UniProtKB/TrEMBL annotation:
GO CC list: bacterial-type flagellum basal body, rod
Location(s), subcellular: Bacterial flagellum basal body
Name of the protein in its database record: Flagellar basal-body rod protein FlgC
GO biological process: bacterial-type flagellum-dependent swarming motility
Flagellar basal body rod protein N-terminal domain boundaries: 7-32
Protein origin, superkingdom: Bacteria
Gene (UniProt): flgC
Listed InterPro entries: Flag_bb_rod_N (IPR001444), Flg_bb/hook_C_dom (IPR010930), FlgC (IPR006299)
A Pfam short name: Flg_bb_rod
Keyword S-adenosyl-L-methionine: no
Length: 136
């Protein structure tokens, strides 16, 4: 594999993880967003999945983030009859965002991003070393 290809593959991974971090941030920002009318649904957590996409010009598979999908897990119900979003039984649907899970996902995405960055840095160092050797 050429070093240029390795750098482009890692860059595609960084872009994909950047998209994932954006969605995780959106989830965290909306973790308290409730429905606007009684009984309506609150914010629903989004998740990003990835796919491998062939770049024919490079002859390599790149990573691409797919369109974010909604997490279909159930909403938690909280009894709060005085809340404007409460249903007829006094329950408020809470977003299905779990801060601990989002923070763990964020850390994983950050580490994957950093690993891809390290690959690019290593490839650049190898290219620079090759140029230095050719100059001698």
């Amino acid at each position: 594999m050429e070093l240029k290809n390795a750098m482009q593959i890692s860059a595609s991974g960084m872009r994909a993880q950047g998209e994932r971090l954006k969605i995780i941030s959106e989830n965290l920002a909306n973790s308290d967003s409730l429905g606007k009318t009684p009984g309506s649904d609150p914010y629903r957590r989004k998740v990003v999945s990835f796919k491998s996409e062939l770049d024919r010009a490079m002859g390599a598979n790149l990573v691409k983030a797919q369109k974010p999908q909604q997490d279909r897990s159930d909403f938690e119900l909280k009894y709060d009859p005085g809340h404007p979003s409460a249903n007829a039984d006094g329950y408020v649907k809470m977003p299905n965002v779990k801060s601990v899970i989002e923070m763990a996902d964020m850390r994983e995405a950050q580490r994957t991003y950093e690993a891809n960055l390290n690959v690019i840095d290593s490839a650049k160092a190898m290219l620079n070393r090759t140029v230095d050797l050719l100059r001698q």
